[in-house]
From TrEMBL, chain A:
Organism per entry: Paralvinella palmiformis
Family the UniProt entry places it in: Belongs to the small GTPase superfamily. Rab family.
Example of a GO MF term: GTP binding
Protein name according to UniProt: Uncharacterized protein
PANTHER family for this protein: PTHR47978
Keyword line: Nucleotide-binding
Automatic annotation (TrEMBL), chain B:
Name under which the protein is recorded: UDENN domain-containing protein
Superkingdom of origin: Eukaryota
Family label: Belongs to the DENND6 family.
Domain UDENN: 1-404
Family matches, as Pfam families: DENN
GO cellular component annotations of the record: recycling endosome
GO function term, MF aspect, one: guanyl-nucleotide exchange factor activity
Length: 202, 481
């Protein structure tokens, strides 16, 4: 089975838990005190989604402002991007919208976008409602999922969902008449979002 | 020097000065825009080995001339040139955080291991490159297997870490290629004068690669300036020119190195230049072989021009090398002379006169079809550092192989039967020899399987047990130390 290499980057404010999500996904572990990322960390993980083997080349970017200008290096040529915010910090969700706008302008048009509302184990401190994030994602055709790197909630599903979208995209791109199929992809995604919401118990 | 990454790296003042001068143009000769090249510097005493640096400088704004320099001990010219071409533009745009990010990526790179394909993350891309190995088949550089085409290409595949494009480098001097090969082989002083550091460094790198699989064992400086700390040493007129290859751009060198026997001038390759001057100046008669007309024959090799040139050079080098290898093989001791009761045999010494006698009937004139004074070429080669380096390497390699063979014989021998009728002195001698072997294995000096190791240890222990107890305890207490 051929391995499909996928460049994926994580974007988002400092401290929202980008590295923690990656650590949970790659090593299935959690460190309560992560040091700040320098530039970007690079990790890989191979995963089989719908019979396809994906090797994710994960660029976990630094959230600190001084590295802001380097972001294009990481989303340039990326097949997927995860924009992470912290559900207990409204300002980090605001940053998501800015990232979405930037990616729309400069990233590849086929990029698979995912929005991850991290730290959903801290329900008491919630500042961003699920619905608000959901609406935002829908308007950008992005995957939306709430995660907790700490409690290992939805982290794997996040990547599985990205893999699914990629394989849909793969199929569309290998077919000659892509117009009708592009529609199919959108429809299917809509269903997926609903389905997942149920299974995650919101 | 504005910043150095990673921060713990210490450079001596002399090294810093050299790097600074080498990172910028050495003259006002007009090269415009970004320039990329590489150079080598000598590390200060106590810090052995030479460092390769790869530079990209931005000349768009001369008032703010900036350079990004990557230093490494490893000769991966192609790889580092690529890496610098990734880092430098980002640095010129975004400044220091960029270097920080790049260093962080490089920090994660795996250790280089011959024959392995490495995935090297660097600033948002992954460079895939295979490190060469000695067992590689000549010329057919193994392809990196490319997984099915991804939706978006995630990797940049570099065909080689260190191979330079010899054809482009030698295009202006192609008619002289055979003579250049001879000069490099016998380690003659040679200076390459060009208009830009890119051209001179590329040409010098190509020159040292012409004699592959021989290793060029003398110093070479792909880019050398009048400010270099070895400037005096290398340009002195009171001694014969040193056996080095220099790449220079400053016209001043034309005067300083007037007394050098070989000067290679490479003219501007750009279309803008109306006149192209490419010539090889030589003093005296150095050329020993007649050149073959009509080189290189592109049709015959049926490949690209670059491959045709590589093949031509390789065949030339192999014609020269095969008789040497054949002679070294004749110096090997016979397998049956390897005895478990004696020390390991060693390679007999290389007798140049005896070697030259073998040339008369089976020399390179037979394989290469080139007429000329091959003997004279060998004699010059024997005086060069290239011969010394090659011979030392072969000797080490053969002696290590002999050690391994000896070890195998030792493991298979029935030592317990052998010692039955031996004097204690002889047995103790054997034990000491076994211990020496075991120590070498433990220091990783001998390649050996675990099975062999345990057998050897077993032999040793059994023989010690066969001795009288008082001697055993002496040997044991000795062993502890």
């Amino acid at each position: 089975m051929a391995v499909i290499e996928i460049k994926l980057c994580l974007l988002g404010d400092s401290g929202v838990g980008k590295s923690s999500i990656v650590h949970r996904f790659v090593y299935d572990s959690f460190r309560p005190y992560m040091e700040n990322t320098i530039g970007a960390a690079f990790l890989t993980k191979t995963m089989i989604v719908e019979g396809r083997t994906y090797k994710f080349q994960i660029w976990d970017t630094a959230g600190q402002e001084k590295y802001r200008a380097l972001a294009p290096m990481y989303y340039r040529g990326a097949a997927a991007a995860i924009i992470v915010y912290d559900i207990t910090r409204e300002s980090s969700f605001h940053a998501v919208k800015l990232w979405l706008a930037e990616l729309k302008r400069h990233a590849s048009p086929n990029i698979v976008l995912a929005i991850a509302g991290n730290k959903n184990d801290l329900e008491d401190l919630r500042e961003v409602s699920y619905q608000e994030a959901q609406d935002c994602a829908k308007s950008h055709g992005a995957i939306m999922i709430e995660t907790s790197a700490k409690s290992a909630i939805n982290v794997a599903s996040l990547f599985v969902e990205i893999g699914r979208r990629l394989s849909n995209l793969d199929m569309t791109m290998s077919l000659p008449s892509s117009n009708s199929n592009a529609l199919n992809v959108n429809q299917r995604t809509g269903q997926d979002v609903k389905g997942r919401r149920k299974c995650c118990g919101f | 020097m504005e910043v150095v990454y990673p921060g713990h790296v210490k450079l001596t003042d002399k090294e810093k000065t050299n790097i600074c001068y080498l990172s910028f143009p050495d003259s006002n000769s007009g090269c415009m825009g970004d320039t990329q090249f590489h150079f080598r510097i000598r590390r200060c005493p106590g810090r052995r080995s030479v460092v390769q640096a790869h530079t990209d400088y931005n000349k768009d704004c001369p008032a703010a001339l900036q350079s990004v320099v990557l230093l490494s001990k490893l000769p991966f010219v192609t790889l580092y040139n690529y890496i610098v071409s990734v880092i430098a533009p980002e640095y010129f745009d975004n400044g220091e955080p960029c270097l920080e990010a790049a260093c962080h990526d490089i920090d994660q790179w795996p250790d280089p291991c011959p024959g392995e394909t490495l995935n090297l993350p660097i600033m948002g891309t992954v460079v895939q490159v295979r490190l060469p190995s000695r067992s590689d088949k000549v010329l057919t550089s193994p392809q990196i297997k490319n997984p099915s085409v991804p939706t978006m290409p995630a990797n940049n595949i570099l065909p080689s870490v260190s191979e330079v494009d010899v054809y482009s480098a030698f295009l202006p001097v192609l008619p002289h290629i055979q003579m250049l090969w001879e000069l490099v082989l016998i380690g003659e002083p040679l200076v390459v004068m060009a208009n830009s550091p890119t051209i001179c460094s590329g040409t010098v790198q190509a020159l040292v690669s012409t004699i592959w699989p021989f290793k060029y064992c003398m110093d070479f400086r792909p880019y050398f300036t009048i400010h270099d700390s070895e400037f005096r040493e290398y340009t002195t007129k009171t001694q014969a020119p040193p056996a080095v290859i220099l790449g220079v751009t400053n016209p001043f060198f034309a005067k300083t190195l007037q007394h050098w026997p070989h000067v290679l001038r490479i003219g501007e390759l750009a279309v803008s230049s109306p006149k192209t001057i490419n010539k090889l100046k030589k003093v005296g008669t150095i050329k020993t072989l007649d050149s073959k007309p009509g080189y290189p024959d592109k049709e015959a090799s049926g490949g690209s021009e670059c491959n045709a040139l590589k093949r031509y050079l390789l065949e030339l080098t192999q014609s020269f090398m095969i008789p040497l290898e054949r002679y070294v093989a004749s110096l090997m001791p016979l397998q049956r002379n390897i005895s478990p009761h004696k020390g390991p045999p060693r390679l007999k010494s290389f007798d140049t006169e005896a070697f030259l006698k073998t040339i008369e009937h089976s020399g390179p004139q037979l394989t290469s079809g080139l007429k000329g004074d091959w003997i004279a070429l060998y004699r010059r080669f024997f005086r060069s550092g290239n011969f010394e380096g090659w011979l030392r390497f072969r000797q080490e390699e053969v002696n290590q192989k002999l050690q391994a063979l000896h070890l195998e014989v030792l493991c298979q021998a029935d030592l317990l039967t052998w010692i039955q009728d031996k004097q204690e002195v002889e047995i103790v001698d054997l034990i000491l020899r076994l211990r020496e072997k075991l120590a070498k294995i433990n220091e990783n000096q001998l390649p050996v399987s675990n099975d062999m190791l345990s057998r050897l240890q077993h032999h040793h222990d059994m023989i010690v047990c066969s001795l009288p107890e008082d001697l055993q305890s002496v040997l044991k207490s000795n062993h502890g130390n």
